[in-house]
Specification:
Elements (H helix, E strand, L loop, with lengths): L4 H18 L3 H12 L6 E2 L12 H11 L6 H6 E3 L5 E3 L2 H9 L4 H23 L5 H24 L5 H4 L1 H6 L1 H4 L9 H17 L12 E2 L15 H11 L14 H4 L4 H13 L3
Antiparallel strand pairs: 1-4, 2-3
Helix pairs in contact: 1-6, 1-14, 2-11, 3-6, 6-7, 7-11, 12-14
Length: 283
Amino acid sequence: MTVNAITAGRIQSAIALASSRTGIDFDYLLGQAKLESGLNATARAGTSSATGLYQFIEQSWLAVVKKHGAEHGMSWAADSIGRNGNGRLSVSDPGTRQAILNLRNDPAAASLMAAEHAGDNKAALEGKLGRAATGTDLYMAHFLGLGGASKFLSKMQSDPGATGVAMFPSAARANRNVFYDRSGAPRSLTQIYERFAAKLEGGAVGASGTTSPVGFASQALDIEGGTVVTGAESATDALAWANSTLGRFDKPQAFPATATASLMRPNPDTARLAYMMLASMGV
């Protein structure tokens, strides 16, 4: 399935804004989104709770919103997240919990949290590795978790021919196309890493217009189209308007538990945001 051009433009403008706000490389965020979901903001995984543009599982999403939500107008969400007796992140009110989880399907919220998550992982990996983290390093942290990525990258440096299956059997069972080649042979750590690097680069270069089907256990769903509203604002006006528009995240009632579908239905405001942001980027 493919994502229509208007929807793809709206998603790319949300990613551009997240990049400008956090300093995380736009091409990396764009490549990651294409790799994770095919730029489909409602993609769902068949083997886990992962959903949305960046395929956050529930606990990972709650963690990043708890840490960074308030920085981006989502204090209502961050303040609602606590820990239960088992140490797991939780939200006491079921409706609020669902509203927070539904934000994974909003391109702007998902892009901002993915960028913040990447920034956290970048700092931690560079401290552990003693070198600058690459985009592929960051993706490994997203895919395997920070601890798993550190283990993967350290082992790859000392023994590049080691297989990923031996180190990550659970991840291999859930992602056979990552850990095994077409013949069924297990891939080495270097092969897995290089495959992700190529896909990230290809995703960033080829993400305009329509996209390929979702990979890595995600299922693509069609997103409803919308109407582009043109305007004559400058790039500065566009960015100012876009920043003010994201203020909607401070209203939890905007994301009720039953409103997942309406979150993804473009309206004149979101269509205008896509148009203006793309115009400001020279597209």
